[in-house]
Amino acid sequence: MKNLFANRVLNNDNSDLDNIFKNSANPANISFAGGFPDVALFPDTDLKHAYQTAIDQDGPAIFQYSSTQGLPALRQKLAQRMASHAGVMTTADNVMLTQGGQQAIDLVAKLLLNRGDSMVVEGPTYMGALAAFDTYEPTYYEIPVDDHGMNINQLRQTLQAHPEIKLIYTVPDFHNPTGTTLSAKRRQAMVALANQYDVMILEDSPYRDLRYSGKAIPAIKHYDTEGRVIFISSFSKILSPALRTGWIVADDDVMHELIGLKSAIDVQSPNITLAAINAYLDTHDIDDHIATINQAYRIKRDAMLKALDRYMPANVQYTRPAGGFFIWVTLPAGIDAKQLLNDVVLPQAHVAYVPASCQFASRQVKNAFRLNFTSLTPETITTGIKRLGNILQTSTAAVPAKALMPAIQF
Amino acid sequence: MKNLFANRVLNNDNSDLDNIFKNSANPANISFAGGFPDVALFPDTDLKHAYQTAIDQDGPAIFQYSSTQGLPALRQKLAQRMASHAGVMTTADNVMLTQGGQQAIDLVAKLLLNRGDSMVVEGPTYMGALAAFDTYEPTYYEIPVDDHGMNINQLRQTLQAHPEIKLIYTVPDFHNPTGTTLSAKRRQAMVALANQYDVMILEDSPYRDLRYSGKAIPAIKHYDTEGRVIFISSFSKILSPALRTGWIVADDDVMHELIGLKSAIDVQSPNITLAAINAYLDTHDIDDHIATINQAYRIKRDAMLKALDRYMPANVQYTRPAGGFFIWVTLPAGIDAKQLLNDVVLPQAHVAYVPASCQFASRQVKNAFRLNFTSLTPETITTGIKRLGNILQTSTAAVPAKALMPAIQF
To answer: Does the beta carbon of A27 lie under 8 angstroms from any beta carbon of chain B?
Structure first.
C-alpha cells in the first residue's frame, strides 16, 4: 500500500530512534536515552484518590462528552498559575487542555504551517517536536544554542534574510536537549524580533518548574505585546506523563482556531483525567510536590555532573544545567556519536544515550549526545558515566578539544 | 495573526455548527442535534472501581510513559473481539489504541492524504470526519446512500472516472447520519472495487454493536484480501465517550506508519485510562452491558419512529434504522433545513436538529436533517417530535412529496 501513503510519511524515517530506544530498554544496559521522570516520585496514592473523588463528585455526567477546550475549573487554576509562576496574565478562556505538550505542538504546527512554509528551530532541539513538525513538511532554519539559549544575533540575521519565516519554536527553560535557559534579555529581544518580522513564537516549556538552582525568569509570553507568543506546558514532568495532559495559552484569535483544530483531531481530552487532576489540585499544593521532585532531581543532576567531571576526558565538553532533565555532551569534531554508540558504547560499555543527529533538523551535527539524569538513581548514574567516560577516554584519545557547541551548517 | 494561519484553517468555517450546538444546549429547547449516549446508562460505579483496580494492580508504574500502540492486554482483548463480533481475524500487533474514533480518522487521513488528493465520502456523512479530512484539503467525491448503504454502482462509476482516488471513507453500520447499514453484498463489492482500482477503505464503525433488530453483518474488513481496509471503532458509544478511547485495526505496513504518526501527534494515549478499561473488561461481560444499552435505545428508537409516523406530514420522509443513534429526515425539495431551523423550528417549536448541509462534503444538499434519539427519554422524544411535526405541517404544506434520499450534485 506504500504507493498510497502521503509524502509526509514517505519522507519520514524514525528507525534510528526506534533502535536506540529498543536497545535502551534492554535491562543489561544503563540507559541515559529516555526522557522519563522517576517513577518513585509519582504521587500514585494521591492520584488514585483524585480519580475516586472526581468520579464521586461529578457522578455519571463525568463520563459524558464535554467541551473541546477542557474542564473550566482546571483551566481557571492554570490561568492563575500562569500569573503566579510565569508572569503571564491570562484568563481561563485563553487556556486549552491538550493530550500532553506533544499534542499542543502538533496543533500549533497544524494551525500555522502549509507545506514548505519556513520556520526557525534551535539546533539542537526536542526531537519529538521535529517529528511533529516534519509531518507538515516545513522548511527549517536552525539557530545554534549557547549557555544563554538561542543565539539572538543569528536569529536576527536569519529573519532578515528569510522574511517568509512564520514561526520560531523554542524550549526556553532547561532546553531539551542541552539544558540551557534563555536569558531574560534574549526573551525580550526575541519578542521584539517577532514583532518586527511578523513571526509567531511557540514557547514550549515543560521543564519550567524543575529548577534546581538560580532564579526563575518570566516566560517569553510575559514580554508578548502583540499576541504572537503561544505558550505550552504539561503535567507530564511535574505530576505524571501517563495523564497525557498539557495546556496551551494563546490569545483569542489563535485560541479560537486551535479549539476548532482539536475538535477535528480528537473531539476533546478525557474529562475524567482532567477532573482527576483538578481534584488533586483542590486538595494538594502541587508546589510542595514539585519541591520534593526538585530535591531528588538536584541530587541526580549533581551526581551526573560530579561523575562527568571525574570520568570524562579533557576533550569532551558538557553543559551544567540549572534544572530540567538533560545534559548535553559534545565530543571532539569528527566523532560520530551515533556510530560510536552502535559500534562501541552500547556493545562494550552497555550504556545508551541519544546521539546528536536526530536532534538537529538538518541532521548534520554528529559529534554530540544527550544524557538524561532524572530516571536513574545517583548510584546508577555514577556507574554509567564511569563506564561511558572510560570508553570515551579510549575512543576520543587522538582528537583535540573543541568549542562547547557544535557549529551549525545551514 | 490571521495572515500567518495555514490554508487548512482559513478555508474552514464551523460557525454554523457552533451556533447549532450552542442553541441546542439551551435547556428551553429539546435538542435532537447532539450524538450523545444516555448518561443514565454509563456504568459509572463499575468504571470507578476499574480505575481503582488498575492503579492498585500496576502501582506507580501505571503513571509512567508507556507504548504508543497502547496497553498490550487491552489490544489482545480487542483482537479477540474483532474475531468474535466482526468476523475479522487479527492480532494484538495489528490493533492500536487511539483518542476515540476521531483520532483514528485523523491518523488515517494524515497517513494517506496529500493536499488535493482524491477521496470518496458518503453523501451525507459524519460531519466530524469531514472536519478531520478538511484539514488535509482533499478533493471529495460524494456517493449517495440508500436503504442498503453506499450506492455501489455510483462508486464504481466514480472510481472508473477518477483513477487518482486513494481512499473510500464509509460508516457501514447504522450510518451517521442516516442510520442505514451497508449490505453484505455491497461490502464484498466495495472490497473488490478497492482491489481493482488500488484504493484504501476506511471503515468507521462506532455503532456496530448497537443493533436493535435484525442480524449482524461481518465488517468490511472481513472481506479484505489485500490489507486495504482499515477498521476503526470506539468505546464512546458502548462504554463512555469521556474515556476518549478508540481503536484501529490495520495490516502491518499501515500499522507501522500509524504508530509513527501517533507518536508525533501525542506520544501515546493515557495508560491509566487504557488500564482502567482493561480492568473493567476483566471483571465484566461488556456484552451484558451492551444488551442493557440496546434495550433502552430500542425503546427510544421506537418512540421516535412512532412519533414520526404520527406527527410528520405526508411529504416528509425518514429512515427506519435497525440500530445506532440517528434517523435521517428528508423534507420536500426546495426547503432549506438550516434556514427553517433558525427562522421557525428553534424560535417557535423550540426543537433542534442538525441540518443536512454541514453533513455533505459538497454542502449542496439542504432539504434534510439528522435526529438523535439516544440522549432523551421516550416522553421527551414524543413531545419534541410532536412539536416538530406540527411546525413542519405548516412549513411544508405547499410542497409535494419527494424521493427518500436527496439527489447529489457533483
So the answer is: no
